[in-house]
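Dear colleague,

Thank you for sharing your sequence with our group. We've completed the structure prediction you requested, and as agreed, I am returning the results in plain text so they can be pasted directly into your records. Please verify that the sequence below matches your submission; if there's any discrepancy, let me know and we will rerun it promptly.
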Amino acid sequence: MAPSSLDFYDSELRAHHEHLRAAYGISHGDEVLDIGCGAGLTTREAARAAAPGRVVGVDVSERMLRRARQLTAAERLANVRYEHGDAQVHRFDPARFDVAISRFGTMFFTDPVAAFENIAAALRAEARLVLLVWQRLEHNEWARLIDAALGDAVQPTPPGANPFSLGNPETTARILEAADFDDVRFEEVREPVFYGPDIDAALDVVTGFQNTSAALASLSDGDAGRTVERVREMLAAHYSHERGVALDSRSWLITARRHR
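Please find the predicted structure tokens below.
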């Protein structure tokens, strides 16, 4: 099956993903919840590891879920179900799951304690939580360099849209503990993010980001053109033949357990 633009994040995050994959700890027969599953790569991996256990992937984007269902059908995985919803309020089956996983799908909760309480209620006692989240903005070169190239056109981050909201480990540990998780652990992950095999492809990706497109839309045509050229120059400075356009980034691999 040909790749889709909806599969971009799987490529962008592939180096971080390997750390999450190694930490899953999914056993045959486990029931697994995948939060913010996107196009379903993590869901499908979990399904193969958990079979005959079942996996539920949930995401707010119906468009991404359509792609996830398409890829899951192509792989003939019968132990997967996708649900359209927001994990912070979605009505999950109570105390059903043995493992909850998420690859950068939990940073946008408007009330993170309530959201993780909702997730905890879907887990059995002693169930595992395995997350990847971004570290703070200042530790993520990709975001700092894009913002620098956009300059004064950078738009304020709306409430609930901050990708670095769980970047402070002390604050995030308190959130998880308040939501009935314990044994909360953080492992630093430092890997590149990949924006494309060449500079033109990377520019298409970065100018398509929501914050970038909003910034460019706020400018006159001339200023927008000059800003795009600054973005191009920044990406070109991080191009290599071996890796394409790659920028430094850091995440936290978080593991925890549902309280007894």
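Summary note from our side: The mean pLDDT is 94.

Kind regards,
the structure core
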